[in-house]
From TrEMBL:
Entry annotated with the keyword DNA damage: no
Family matches, as SUPFAM superfamilies: Acyl-CoA N-acyltransferases (Nat)
Native source organism of the sequence: Bradyrhizobium lablabi
Keywords from the named record: Transferase
UniProt-recorded Gene Ontology molecular function terms: acyltransferase activity, transferring groups other than amino-acyl groups
Protein known as: Protein N-acetyltransferase, RimJ/RimL family
N-acetyltransferase domain location: 24-185
InterPro entries associated with the record: Acyl_CoA_acyltransferase, GNAT_dom, N-acetyltransferase
Length: 194
């Protein structure tokens, strides 16, 4: 995509935190993530719930734009959705983590998992790590999860995380349920599990 870099040149690098779970690595975005992120968003079932217009992203430029937005959130705000990578294969699994652009209804931890990696518990595993990191890093009493009313799978993830449905919001012209993870409840559940 870009020309080779001269050996004497130094390019800007975003080095966000890296989170390791039992099966996953949550890390910063890189150029190699554009193609698998675009492939994930080309799936109509995935795009329906996580693209702005609910339509698949099939063009290379639009996939690049989406990845640039994800990576740019880190540059502009110091946080963003992590790329989720499967440790055993080093494959792109999806994206999970904080999301709080201007006008958003609150500090969110969201998730989007590629079709071929669903059903393995990766969304819950990665979201737990991202929620832990967020509560450790920020003075927050709650984290939201905006989930389309018809997204039954994401609602199941929210329930497994211990979140509660607490209202609605308008996202890009359609209604989404707002699920909430409370800090005190999260910490109590984490202590009880350990």
């Amino acid at each position: 995509m870009i020309p080779p870099v001269k050996s004497s040149a130094v390019l800007a690098q975003v080095n966000g935190p890296v989170i390791e779970t039992e099966r996953l690595t949550l890390r910063s975005w890189c150029g190699a993530d554009i193609v698998p992120n675009t492939a994930m968003l080309a799936d109509p079932g995935t795009a329906r719930f996580i693209t702005v217009d609910g339509k698949p992203i099939t063009e290379e430029l639009n996939g690049w734009r989406n990845a640039a937005i994800m990576a740019g959130h880190w540059v502009l705000h110091g946080i963003g959705m992590f790329v989720v990578e499967e440790k055993s294969s080093r494959k792109f699994v999806g994206r999970v983590g904080p999301w709080f652009p201007p006008g958003w209804p609150g500090f969110e931890v969201g998730w989007g998992i590629a079709k071929e990696f669903r059903g393995k518990g990766y969304a819950v595993e990665a979201a737990r790590a991202a929620i832990d990191w967020s509560f450790t890093t920020f003075e927050l009493e709650r984290i939201i999860h905006c989930i389309d009313r018809e997204n039954v799978a994401s609602e199941a993830v929210a329930r497994r995380l211990g979140a509660e449905k607490q209202g609605e919001t308008d996202l890009f012209g359609h209604v989404a349920n707002v699920w909430v993870t409370q800090r005190d409840r999260w910490q109590n559940a984490t202590r009880a599990a350990n």
